[in-house]
Write a structure and sequence with these properties.
346 residues, 11 helices, alpha+beta, 60s Ribosomal Protein L30, Chain: A
Length: 346
């Protein structure tokens, strides 16, 4: 008799299974697994937000294609972006490293310089962590703690039917930058395409990959002004992160493809390499922009305030009933938004 074949791991299915079996309510817990950060209530007038990320060499970064300082900076921004999506103020930072023999002391210090450069921009202080030897690659774990006023935080579960869908900044830049780095090691045909891009466009895209910006100020503005009904940061890509928000809110969504904000550099890259800039925008994670929803009655005030503060936000669609699904509209034609975002184990 043949033994049953084990099902392959799926990242988000695994998270949901672990949540069902092991995550239980605890005193003071406002919100646990399922959002960008867990939220805990204490006797202070604040809610405390906790978020952590694990980065593995060969999965999230390689030491051959990025300087340690850039790796550290990008890793910290990924965590800061989680707090941005909650509208939280970054407070404290813990760092744990598993270090293989090939990594030198100067490289470790470079990682820390990058992480602290990012965190100091927002006032987050290093308060602890751990180190270990590693027989595999380099592993980096960051835990960030932030705060909001009590009963004042953004969650993924607040989107309502009729709400408008917005994103900050531009989409697809980080993925284009990553592909540029990969293409720099490919044959002459790719080099010729690369030469069609201006130096400024190449530098912009690579900088967006290595040195993204967590939208901390924008998140606090949306939260403190009660302008957004739900929010999530774009770390896995629009096509996946929008699904996470809709699943938590119990709604569907319609995305207007022609409205997606694309930088001139991303458009130039797409033109040079013959790829769809829209595909880059819906696939690319790690832009660390904010995806959020707001009621239609707030649209004029929201967009006016954003302009006054110098924040770039773009309306890209509308929240629909759950039965509508996750759809995209282009030139009057509606079809399912493909799931192209990154997922571990897939």
């Amino acid at each position: 008799m043949a033994l049953p074949t084990a099902k392959p791991l799926q990242e988000f299915g695994l998270i949901q299974g672990l949540k069902r079996q092991f995550a239980h309510h605890a005193p003071g817990l406002v919100h646990g697994i399922g959002d960008d950060a867990a939220v805990v209530e204490t006797s202070s007038p604040r809610w405390w937000h906790f978020t952590t990320d694990l980065l593995a060499e060969g999965i999230h970064f390689t030491l051959t294609s990025a300087a340690p300082e850039s790796i550290g900076y990008r890793a910290a921004m990924a965590n800061l972006s989680d707090l941005a999506a909650m509208g939280a103020v970054p407070r404290y930072l813990l760092i744990s490293l598993a270090i293989p023999k090939k990594v030198s002391r100067p490289q470790v210090y470079g990682l820390y310089r990058g992480m602290m450069k990012a965190c100091r921009l927002y006032g987050a202080a290093l308060i602890g962590g751990d180190t270990s030897a590693s027989k595999a690659g380099l592993f980096l774990s960051i835990t960030l703690v932030g705060t909001t006023a009590k009963r004042r935080a953004l969650f993924r579960h607040g989107a309502k039917v009729g709400d408008q869908i917005y994103v900050s900044g531009t989409l697809g830049d980080s993925l284009a930058g990553l592909r540029l780095l990969a293409n720099s090691k490919t044959p002459r045909s790719s080099q010729e395409k690369r030469s069609q891009l201006s130096r400024s466009h190449r530098q912009f895209l690579i900088r967006r990959h290595f040195h993204p910006t967590a939208r901390i100020a924008e998140g606090q503005w949306l939260n403190n002004g009660r302008l957004a009904t739900a929010a999530i940061d774009l770390s896995d890509g629009l096509s996946g992160d929008l699904r996470h928000m809709c699943a938590e809110s119990g709604v569907g969504a319609e995305v207007e493809i022609e409205s997606l904000p694309l930088s001139p550099a991303c458009r130039a890259y797409a033109n040079a390499y013959g790829v769809s800039p829209i595909r880059l925008a819906i696939t690319g994670g790690e832009d660390y922009e904010l995806l959020f929803t707001a009621p239609p009655r707030s649209r004029r005030a929201l967009e006016r305030q954003a302009r006054a503060r110098g924040y770039r936000i773009t309306r890209i669609g509308t929240i629909r009933p759950k039965k509508f699904g996750i759809q995209m509209t282009s030139h009057g034609r509606t079809q399912p938004l493909p799931l192209t975002s990154y997922e571990h184990f897939r």
